[in-house]
Specification:
Blueprint (H helix, E strand, L loop, with lengths): L2 H17 L3 H8 L2 E5 L4 H5 L8 E4 L16 E5 H7 L4 H19 L4 H6 L4
Parallel strand pairs: 1-3
Antiparallel strand pairs: 2-3
Helix pairs in contact: 1-5, 4-5
Length: about 120
């Protein structure tokens, strides 16, 4: 499937996931930019991330913006080609993995660690 089509599908899934969030979290979620990249770039790979990474939250978690020396605004990166490969080119699996990956990365923005994410089924 064409990358532009996958990005459009992913953006629809993210929008639907946001609409299902409780109102107080929905407002926070809409304040975090979501960027759709084909794959992780050389800069992320140089930092030690795996080439097949599905998503990444960058920036300061909510509530810590003023206490950290982070110059990057909070954002979520979703790696479309990696998600598509992970889904083995099955559109239903792709949709579900985009939803879970987005919510996982949003959880990092909310300050949840890996254990808290796993407890919510977002690992």
């Amino acid at each position: 499937m064409e990358p532009d089509r996958l990005i459009a599908i992913a953006a629809d899934i993210v929008g639907a996931a946001q609409r299902r969030l409780p109102p107080e979290i929905r407002t926070l979620a809409r304040g975090v930019a979501v960027h759709y990249e084909r794959t992780a770039g050389p800069d992320l790979l140089a930092e030690g991330f795996e080439p097949d990474i599905l998503g990444l939250f960058t920036g300061a978690p909510h509530g810590t913006e003023l206490s950290q020396d982070v110059t990057t605004p909070p954002q979520i990166l979703l790696f479309i080609d990696s998600l598509w490969d992970f889904a083995e080119k099955d559109l239903d699996v792709f949709r579900e993995e985009v939803r879970v990956t987005y919510l996982h990365e949003l959880g990092h923005y909310l300050g949840w660690d890996e254990d808290e994410l796993a407890a919510r089924g977002l690992d």
